[in-house]
TrEMBL record:
PANTHER family linked to this entry: AT30094P (PTHR14969:SF13), SPHINGOSINE-1-PHOSPHATE PHOSPHOHYDROLASE (PTHR14969)
GO terms of molecular function: undecaprenyl-diphosphatase activity
Keyword Cell membrane: no
SUPFAM superfamilies (alphabetical): Acid phosphatase/Vanadium-dependent haloperoxidase
Species this chain originates from: Pseudomonas fluvialis
Protein name: undecaprenyl-diphosphate phosphatase
Length: 301
């Protein structure tokens, strides 16, 4: 049984010129660039409360995954199998792609409760997990471990979410909990935490602060025509890309220690996603605005 979990020799006969680009495509859906692009688009133009919850879930499970990787220090498959060279020197167990895919796509399907979404999510999750094996970035033990931790994350959130104290807690209690968890991970980390740990923690703080501020100003929501939502998504995507260029230039002009820069970058990105861009899209009449801010229970339920 252990040999099955670590042996990737069965993958080699499956590799074909037509299949390899498809597997690279699936695997890109699990990388930071896609996730940090997809979540803001959904927040602006699809369902703000749902994607706020997804921000919480994905940020937590990504940090939890990196913590387990450095704690267990399980090596990846041999380089002879490797077709994905973006993994660097990170460890294998648990697979971040598998864990985040389960959390992101299955929670989306769970919330929407539509058959087509379950089908789409199942295809995407299966494709991402198989792509990690196909590209030699993980073995079977890695992806099974990642999928299991992702499922446990979903189960934990599903149990906590209905609790009244969680739904009705002041936003600052949620912010405090995020900061405490981030500090706890940082202090207990085996070695040096990856750059995206302070980035995600700070971005999540920025998103929650931005949500609170924006809710007081105008409370944007996506109950508008489809073409307005699509245009809002397109403009938001372009603005988000420009923000990354501006942040890169700022990093060159304002050199800071890496962890501190990631905190600054994360806060700016979070406030941009949850406060500045919704305000711009409402002013352009691409998103509507309600007169009153929704109750916390509407967001966290």
């Amino acid at each position: 049984m252990p040999e099955i979990l670590h042996d990737l020799s069965w993958v080699l006969p499956l590799r074909h010129d037509w299949l390899t680009p498809l597997m690279h495509g699936f695997t890109q859906l699990g990388y930071e660039k896609f996730i940090l692009f997809f979540l803001p688009l959904g927040y602006w133009a699809w369902n703000k409360p749902l994607f706020l919850r997804l921000f919480l879930l994905v940020a937590f499970t990504a940090v939890f995954n990196a913590f387990c990787k450095d704690l267990w220090q399980d090596p990846r498959p041999a380089l002879d199998y490797r077709m994905d060279h973006e993994v660097g020197q990170s460890f294998g167990l648990p697979s971040g792609h598998a864990q985040i895919a389960v959390v992101l796509w299955l929670w989306l399907a769970y919330e929407l409760r539509q058959r087509w979404m379950w089908l789409l999510s199942g295809v995407v999750v299966s494709g991402i997990i198989f792509s990690r094996l196909y590209l030699g970035a993980h073995d079977l033990e890695d992806v099974l471990g990642g999928a299991l931790l992702g499922a446990l994350t979903l189960l934990g959130f599903a149990l906590v979410q209905p609790l009244r104290w969680w739904r009705e807690a002041n936003a600052f209690w949620h912010l405090g909990l995020i900061v405490l968890l981030a500090l706890g991970f940082q202090l207990a980390w085996q070695g040096t935490a990856p750059h995206y740990v302070p980035l995600l923690a700070a971005m999540l703080v920025g998103v929650l602060l931005g949500y609170r501020l924006e809710g007081r100003w105008l409370d944007s929501h996506a109950q508008v025509s489809t073409w307005r939502r699509l245009l809002a998504a397109a403009l938001g995507a372009g603005a988000f890309l420009l923000l990354q260029v501006a942040l890169k230039a700022l990093a060159d002009l304002w050199p800071l220690q890496d962890w501190l820069w990631q905190v600054v970058r994360g806060l700016i990105m979070g406030l941009f996603v949850a406060a500045l861009m919704p305000w711009v899209l409402v002013r352009l009449q691409l998103l509507g605005a309600r007169a009153s801010r929704p109750l916390a229970s509407e967001v966290l339920e």
